[in-house]
């Protein structure tokens, strides 16, 4: 599947296109199929996202998983600071990245 | 230390307001990201993996207590409670909001700091010896010369759009503590046989994907011509440096392709021309700057003995303190490398603790080292135990300077958008694996980079580790034999790479081999240089 990611203009936070708006959570990401360029152009022009692009991902029983480790780290947060990730209480969250 | 004059302050303040307006226009949609990106980068604001990252300049690594305190306050007020000290003697914040950036720059300006020229194809922050002004082996304090270069290179109109970024280092002793020959221009302040001060120019060094050791192109430029000579070096580079390929755009490629002799010939010709233009700052300005770097009011007759009855304190003194030129004083290195910690990171509270210790015990002065540690340069021996107790209470007393746990590591894939692999977890695992064996192993400089750009100086590590992307998986190459000191050398790759756990095992096999084969007094690097790669490779790969 193809999903879209970028950063929030004001905060720089990593965001994911959920079909309607930009979510902080990768599990909300939706497959955009062949519509990536259209959505990116519209959303960037409206300043609802910054520096956005399309990436490959898969969906399994755990949810959406970006294909590349760099995007998985973006999705979770730094593996060396679990307290600063989106899932600070989940001791297995880092395993999802690797 | 140097203090801004009205021109310095006015320039920095104006830059803050200029950037505030640029941010306002970006947030209002009046300029696009493509238009805004070069503007924010000129002010040190990157967009990294998780958020905006702000890189703050620390000229030649020197900070006052008030400046350090402000860095700690910024960490707490605008970031997530910590900052990361870098291999270029700067500090980076990883979680900055764009809308906060102008206020942060205003706070920095209030203590004579900024983020100007910490990005982009310009002359970056000039680095120097962290023991400047304290070391007994220096010819002079190199910082006035670094400050003169800072003033010359800041907003230099001709060198604001170089083919590529440009890094300079200035030292003034034969013991190179600033990796001087691995810079675009390295300058060693020297004294000739007549007792005159001059500058030896080393040009075309660097790490990155094509590491090179800078050759000396002029062993003695009179000090009142130093800026003119630097201008000539930059002019030749700006004229002929490649702009068609960013991977071949650094000055090291130009010097290599032209050859040292031809590059030097062109520099000397340009230098001869520039001498007719009278561009050198007046010596009076250098003398004015020197006045800011006069020795502090050392106590004459300060006690020159230490009570070493506390074994933990004694171990820390032996590992982390350097003899001082002034009897009764000592230079202290605070390791930011606790076992299992993140190299170079310090919390806002720790930063303020170090600031307060500097104010109380080190004439209000600190240094950031290129090895991502902090130095208190001028501490009375009589105060050392009290200082150590405060450090110990704040997690800042790790006694591992230049040992295997004192690892240089770039932010790597945990933070950096350029990285291919994580660096920090490797550093954490190595420091944990070797906990308790540091003294047995002795001096061993281990450096880790998460990509070929080599921000973690892996080429210059006695043991270097380079993280690469191997079909979407992190893989780590091992290098041996690098060194950044007066005997600078580049590490050589041992062979096939390793996974995350395998690289830690490989480091252990290399150090075990060293311990089994070292001769009296040999460091790891000495044994490697004596025996060569082959037996180490055999030990590592079996």
Automatic annotation (TrEMBL), chain A:
Entry-linked InterPro entries: DUF2849
Pfam families the record matches: DUF2849 (PF11011)
Protein's name according to its UniProt entry: DUF2849 domain-containing protein
Automatic annotation (TrEMBL), chain B:
Pfam families xrefs: NIR_SIR, NIR_SIR_ferr
UniProt key word Iron: yes
Keywords, in A-Z order: 4Fe-4S, Heme, Iron, Iron-sulfur, Metal-binding, Oxidoreductase
Domain Nitrite/sulphite reductase 4Fe-4S intervals: 119-273, 403-540
An annotated Gene Ontology molecular function: metal ion binding
Nitrite/Sulfite reductase ferredoxin-like domain location: 52-110, 324-393
Lineage: superkingdom: Bacteria
Family note: Belongs to the nitrite and sulfite reductase 4Fe-4S domain family.
Protein name: Sulfite reductase
């Amino acid at each position: 599947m193809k999903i879209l990611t970028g950063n929030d203009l004001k905060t720089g936070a990593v965001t994911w296109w959920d079909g309607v708006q930009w979510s902080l959570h990768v599990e909300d990401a939706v497959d955009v199929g062949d519509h990536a360029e259209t959505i990116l152009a519209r959303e960037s022009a409206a300043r609802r996202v910054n520096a956005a692009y399309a990436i490959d991902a898969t969906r399994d029983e755990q949810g959406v998983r970006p294909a590349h480790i760099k995007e998985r780290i973006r999705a979770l947060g730094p593996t060396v600071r679990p307290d600063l990730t989106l899932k600070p209480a989940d001791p297995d969250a880092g395993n999802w990245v690797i | 230390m140097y203090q801004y004059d009205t021109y310095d302050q006015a320039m920095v303040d104006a830059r803050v307001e200029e950037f505030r307006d640029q941010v306002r226009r970006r947030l209002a949609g009046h300029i696009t990201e493509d238009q805004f990106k070069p503007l924010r980068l000129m002010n040190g604001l990157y967009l990294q993996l998780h958020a905006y990252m702000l890189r703050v300049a620390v000229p030649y690594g020197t900070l006052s207590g008030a400046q350090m305190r402000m860095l700690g306050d910024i960490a707490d007020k605008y970031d997530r409670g910590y900052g990361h000290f870098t291999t270029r003697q700067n500090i980076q914040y990883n979680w900055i909001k764009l809308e906060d950036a102008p206020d942060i720059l205003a706070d920095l300006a209030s203590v004579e700091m900024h983020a100007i020229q910490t990005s982009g194809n310009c002359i970056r922050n000039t680095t120097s010896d962290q023991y400047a002004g304290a070391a007994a082996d220096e010819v002079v304090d190199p910082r006035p010369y670094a400050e003169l270069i800072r003033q010359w290179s800041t907003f230099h109109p001709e060198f604001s759009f170089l083919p590529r970024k440009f890094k300079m280092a200035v030292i003034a002793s034969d013991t190179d503590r600033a990796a001087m020959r691995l810079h675009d221009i390295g300058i060693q302040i020297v004294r000739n046989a007549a007792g005159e001060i001059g500058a030896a120019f080393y040009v075309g060094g660097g790490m990155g994907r094509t590491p090179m050791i800078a050759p000396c192109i002029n062993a003695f430029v009179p000090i009142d011509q130093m800026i003119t000579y630097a201008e000539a070096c930059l002019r030749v580079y700006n004229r002929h440096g490649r702009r068609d390929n960013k991977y071949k755009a650094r000055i090291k490629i130009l010097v290599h392709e032209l050859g040292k002799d031809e590059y030097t010939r062109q520099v000397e010709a340009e230098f001869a021309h520039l001498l007719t233009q009278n561009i050198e700052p007046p010596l009076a300005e250098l003398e004015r700057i020197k006045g800011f770097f006069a020795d502090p009011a050392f106590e004459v007759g300060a006690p020159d003995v230490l009570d070493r009855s506390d074994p933990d304190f004694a171990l820390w003194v032996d590992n982390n303190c350097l003899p001082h030129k002034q009897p009764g004083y000592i230079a202290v290195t605070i390791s930011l490398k606790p076992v299992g910690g993140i190299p170079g990171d310090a919390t806002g509270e720790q930063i303020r603790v170090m600031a307060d210790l500097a104010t109380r015990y080190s004439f209000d002065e600190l240094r950031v080292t290129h090895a991502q540690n902090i130095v208190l340069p001028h501490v009375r021996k009589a105060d050392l135990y009290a200082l150590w107790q405060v450090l110990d209470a704040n997690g800042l007393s790790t006694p591992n300077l230049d040992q295997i746990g004192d690892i240089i590591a770039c932010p790597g894939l945990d933070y950096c958008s350029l990285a291919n692999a994580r660096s920090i977890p490797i550093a954490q695992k190595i420091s944990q694996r070797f906990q308790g064996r540091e003294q047995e192993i002795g001096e061993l400089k281990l450096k880790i980079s998460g990509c070929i750009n080599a921000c973690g100086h892996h080429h210059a590590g006695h043991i270097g580790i380079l993280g690469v992307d191997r079909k979407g998986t992190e893989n780590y190459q091992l290098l041996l034999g690098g060194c950044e000191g007066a005997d600078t050398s580049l590490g050589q790759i041992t062979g096939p790479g390793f996974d995350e756990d395998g690289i830690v095992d490989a480091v252990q096999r290399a150090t075990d081999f060293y311990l089994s084969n070292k001769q009296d007094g040999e460091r790891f690097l000495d044994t490697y240089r004596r025996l060569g790669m082959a037996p180490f490779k055999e030990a590592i790969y079996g």
